[in-house]
Amino acid sequence: MSATVSLQQLTDQLADLESASVEAIDAAATEADLEALRVSLLGKKGRLSAILGSMGRLGPDERPLVGQRANGLKERVQTQLEDRMDRLQSSAMAERLDRERLDVTAPPSFIPPGHRHPLIATTEEIVDIFAGLGYRVSEGPEIESDHYNFTALNIPPNHPARDMQDTFYLGADRLLRTHTSPVQIRHLEAHAPPVRIVVPGRVYRRDAVDATHSPVFHQVEVLALDEGLDFSHLRGTVMAFLKAFFGDLPVRFRASYFPFTEPSAEVDVQWRGRWLEVMGCGMVDPAVLEGLGLDPQRWSGFAAGLGVERFCMVRHGIDDIRRLFTSDLRFLDQF
Known about the structure:
seven-stranded mixed beta sheet, rod-shaped
């Protein structure tokens, strides 16, 4: 540029720049090309800055005219750049959608097989075994009354046995059931003996979570009530069930205490070289039958209960009960 510059020269340069900008912006094929063009036109070392740098050679009355023209040009060029960028991005998105388009009506080429959660599979196997022995499934509510959960099972208020089950109380005589035994009472209220039922269900206790305890777990209850049943029938039923589930393993009965059975026993199996407690059982206490209006001189029965998590963990060699309550597919895919 010469040492002197006129208003007309700068005006002509701005007009040329605007004309060239329109053509260059329309010709930009990619976002990267457009960004490079923006820098060359409007950047600190761009063409507009070079023109503005010559304004100092104009007279005081001419400089505002060039500045006003230059600002207008800058706004128009920026608008054109933004419009072109929007068109390029829209075009790129349309091409990507067309390239990655899926036909959602096409049949799948592969459907991953589903399978039972280990707790569900274990519960179903236990119930199937007892169904094969002539038992029918019965269920009851998880929110229970104090009467069904305790009192009707020979556990009156202030009875020490209540300390065995730390309970979630909901107020107004409502609680989360601590065992599936209340279903025995509900079933016998609605069905006259003889009865044979198996009761699977979820139960709740205030247990701290660790490798062997959970505040939510699953039980299966068994009840048989008929004329002439005695402990030999209980033992034979338990032995038949354990053999069907575990196979031929040594089994032992140990005297124990439950307020709703008398006599009561704990049952152990010898598993991998050690005795493992698997269930509790006993003959139904006559006080429970009397509370239901049944004559204990005529009717007798037995009950047994087991923890599904214990059976599942033993069967599959699971070392931590918390694995059963997570959604870790690495664990679940093993079953």
